[in-house]
């Protein structure tokens, strides 16, 4: 049953043989199809987990480098890959935050989200065009550790 197992790396396929009443009951052929379905299921599960996961990163006010725009900051992001899927920047504002905290967070989040970020292997490099005056914690959705 060498066909039944998660391939490394897992393989997704749209070309899965459909069985009918007339299909020859060849165990090896059936095992290939079951293996393909197993890999598809596994990949879908991994992709759903990746999309649901949010990793928090903190960008420190004094961590920005550069004398003029764009200012850059590199932060550690476990699981980030240079050739992996893009992550989505999301707010990490705590539920129930005071109006003052919301306003301050929104101001800095606007600066960060109007810039750019590129994932590398284990890092994200953020670039902004105005230097934030306070620290901010943001979420990156879609990175698997």
Detailed description of the structure:
By secondary structure, the chain is an alpha+beta fold. Helices cover 28% and strands 23% of the residues. It is built from two helices and six strands; from the N terminus they run αβββαβββ. The chain has helices at 27-52, 99-113; strands spanning 54-59, 71-76, 88-91, 116-120, 123-128, 136-141. The strands form two sheets. A three-stranded antiparallel beta sheet has the order 1-6-3. Strands 2-5-4 form a three-stranded antiparallel beta sheet, with helices on one face. β4 (116-120) and β5 (123-128) form a beta hairpin. The two termini are 31 Å apart.
Key phrases:
145 residues, alpha+beta, 3-stranded antiparallel beta sheet, 2 helices
Task: State the end-to-end distance.
Answer: 31 Å
Q: Count up the helices.
A: 2
Order of helices and strands: HEEEHEEE
Based on Cα principal axes, name the global outline.
elongated
Average pLDDT figure: 80
Strand content: 15-25%
Q: Biggest sheet, open or closed, and with what strands and sense?
A: 3 strands, antiparallel
Ranges where pLDDT stays below 50 over 5 or more residues in a row are none
Read across the widest sheet, the strand sequence of neighbours is 1-6-3
The computed structural class is alpha+beta
Fraction of residues in H or I helices = 25-40%
Radius of gyration: 22 Å
| Count of individual beta strands | 6
């Amino acid at each position: 049953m060498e066909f039944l197992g998660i391939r490394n790396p897992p393989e997704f396929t749209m070309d899965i043989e459909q069985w009918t009443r007339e299909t020859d009951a060849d165990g090896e052929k059936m095992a290939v199809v079951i293996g393909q379905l197993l890999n598809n299921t596994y990949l879908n599960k991994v992709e759903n987990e990746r999309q649901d996961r949010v990793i928090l990163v903190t960008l420190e006010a004094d961590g920005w480098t550069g004398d003029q725009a764009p200012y850059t900051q590199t932060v550690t992001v476990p699981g980030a890959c240079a050739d992996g899927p893009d992550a989505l920047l999301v707010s990490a504002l705590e539920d129930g935050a005071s109006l003052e905290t919301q306003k301050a967070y929104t101001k800095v989040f606007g600066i960060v989200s109007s810039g750019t970020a590129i994932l590398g292997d284990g890092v994200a490099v953020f670039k902004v065009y105005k230097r934030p005056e306070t620290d901010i914690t943001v979420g990156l959705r879609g990175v698997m550790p």
